[in-house]
Amino acid sequence: MGFEYALVHIKYTIPPAIILSLIYRPLWTKLDIYKVAFLVTVVVVSTTPWDSYLIRNRVWTYPPNVMIGPKLFDIPAEEVFFFVIQTYNVSLLYLLFSKPIFYPAYLRAERPASHARGPRNTQWRPYKLLGQLFFAMVIMTGLGMVQGRGRTMYMGGLIVWATPFLMLLWSLAYQFIIGLPRSSTIIPIIIPTLYLWVVDTLELKRGTWVIENDTKIGFYLWTGLEIEEAVFFLITNTLIVFGLIAFDNACAILHTFPDRFPDVPSFPSPLMLVKAFISPASKYDEDRIRGLQDAADRLNRKSRSFYIASAAFQGRLRIDLLLLYSFCRVADDLVDNATSLAEAESWVEKLRCFLNISYGPLQEKITVKDYVETQFPSKAQPALLQLPTEYLSAEPFNGLLQGFEMDLAFSKFQEGRIMSHPIKSELDLDLYARRVAGTVAELCLELVFNHSYTNISGEDGRHILQAGNSMGVALQYVNIARDIGVDAKIGRVYLPLAWLDEEGLTLQAVIKNPHSTRIEKLRSRLLDRAFEIYEEAREIIENLPEEVRGPIRVVVESYMEIGRVLRQGDYEVKAGRATVPKLKRIRVAWQALNK
Ligand SMILES: CC(C)=CCC/C(C)=C/CC/C(C)=C/CC/C(C)=C/[C@@H]1[C@@H](COP(=O)(O)OP(=O)(O)O)[C@]1(C)CC/C=C(\C)CC/C=C(\C)CCC=C(C)C
């Protein structure tokens, strides 16, 4: 009996597990736990017979004086623990690197070339076949090496054991294996492989485990690292990462296509995961995938705060939040970027008509697609067509459009078409903020209620919606405080006239010099008001379902941080706007999840 192999764990495998667990702690979701537990089980079950066979046939051995003693089918307990901890460490590294990935955007509908639409739907089937051919050839080579029964025996056995699993995972998840960013595929394989190569070099030299001379090739990758060991770690880490990718691929299919999979439990059963895989890629809804890709692109380009925050949400809630964002952004841009007041008014009218049709009687629903395709530019269409209206009520959208109309009142005022400025008092400002941002918060919360497994009853729900609406107001105040200069350039002043009067300012004075000391005073006043409202509303976040508290905190805190940096004067300016530096944004998200 000895402790050498146990010491390998204490020195080399447990410390990274602790560090990775601490880093990943605030990001764990129940699905992550299920995924890692599922994979660890698969790894232990699939590795045990192979390892047990090798030990019994003395292909590799463990000197008895380096083991504590207990065994499972002749495999030392330390070795079984190795399967578990290696899988755990690689999984955590993968989870960490892949957290920001929005998986549905990587699905591909594989139509025959003549039916494929858009550059993203390249035909990937040939790659699948090429990969399968490659793995088949590797298996044949491995079989040849085993049959030789000499020095290639261990290497051949390794290949024959692992490659069919790799081939299976490739056949199921090739779209994601090829398409996902290299940071979440290659890095979680390479880092642990190099690390284990070094550990292996140090420990093999000390004789903790030994490959018998007559079953190994005798080639060393570097002094002390046998080629068999190097290949073993590379293959097993690849297997673990491919397994995780396949799991995420199946979940992405389940979450992306509610028409095919209406109810997805928080822990999809293995049978359900298999069902996802056997639904052919040729039948994926291409418009849906394009709508999701378009929403993810838009979020990435237009809002760094909400982009980072979106990574904290999961499954269908994340998908629908992205789609909601996409709709709000497109609607806001259509109105804001119109070249004339008349054009802007016509966009509001068209958006209202779109909502009326979408929420109208069922027989009218068929015309939504026709209406959108004939009335809106092609770039805007996916955002409208994919809006998840089945989970959202019409009222907040109507409020949002009324908010846009208040924006248009600025132009009418400038043209003399209306006599009064749209934001005269603090009450007007509050009404405006409730319309453009309070409504958005209500819509986000409606998605939370609909996608949560926790039931939120009437009175509690109303209370949460009210607090959410107020939080939207706080965010909008920060938005206005940030954009005083940008808005002044287009002749808009959201600071209430009453406040300007108190400071002896006129609208023209703000438009001419939006950075004067007196305006800075009003900016601070607006920010103070924003933080007051935020303080009152934020407690209610703790009444939300547990799994969304952290992510909603991230949304709110990421935006309120703009207010904090404005107060402290510690910000970067991009396109005339104050923004929070990237590292700070990540730290804020982190702290919000840790609360
Ligand atoms: C995670 C994720 C993808 C969230 C998406 C949130 C979402 C749907 C945002 C819509 C944004 C948008 C374009 C709305 C149009 C109207 C508008 C411009 C509103 C202002 C947003 C500012 O965005 P941005 O800075 O990009 O805009 P401009 O460049 O200035 O045009 C707003 C400030 C509103 C944002 C308000 C929210 C996201 C609501 C947040 C509140 C909650 C989620 C509720 C909190 C719950 C409780 C119980 C307190």
In helices, the fraction of residues equals: 55-70%
- Catalogue the unreliable spans: none
pLDDT averaged over residues: 91
For the biggest sheet, the summary is: 2 strands, antiparallel
Name every ligand kind in the structure. the ligand CC(C)=CCC/C(C)=C/CC/C(C)=C/CC/C(C)=C/[C@@H]1[C@@H](COP(=O)(O)OP(=O)(O)O)[C@]1(C)CC/C=C(\C)CC/C=C(\C)CCC=C(C)C
The domain tally reads 2
What is the terminal-to-terminal distance? Answer: 46 Å
* DSSP, total strands: 8
Question: Which fold does the CATH topology of the largest domain refer to?
Answer: Farnesyl Diphosphate Synthase
- Note the overall shape: elongated
Describe the structure.
- The chain is mainly alpha-helical and 595 residues long.
- It has two domains: 4-107 and 179-280, no CATH class; 302-316 and 388-594, Farnesyl Diphosphate Synthase.
- Helix content is 69%, strand content 3%.
- The chain has helices at residues 4-24, 30-56, 77-98, 125-148, 153-179, 182-185, 187-205, 227-256, 270-278, 286-302, 304-310, 315-336, 341-358, 367-375, 381-385, 394-414, 426-451, 458-482, 484-489, 497-502, 507-512, 517-538, 546-568, 582-594; strands at 60-61, 71-72, 75-76, 210-211, 220-222, 225-226, 572-574, 577-579.
- The model has no long low-confidence stretch (mean pLDDT 91).
- It binds the ligand CC(C)=CCC/C(C)=C/CC/C(C)=C/CC/C(C)=C/[C@@H]1[C@@H](COP(=O)(O)OP(=O)(O)O)[C@]1(C)CC/C=C(\C)CC/C=C(\C)CCC=C(C)C.
- The ligand CC(C)=CCC/C(C)=C/CC/C(C)=C/CC/C(C)=C/[C@@H]1[C@@H](COP(=O)(O)OP(=O)(O)O)[C@]1(C)CC/C=C(\C)CC/C=C(\C)CCC=C(C)C is lined by residues 299, 302-303, 306, 309-310, 321-322, 324-325, 328-329, 332, 436-437, 440-441, 444-445, 464, 467-468, 471-472, 475-476, 479, 537-538, 540-541, 552, 555-556.
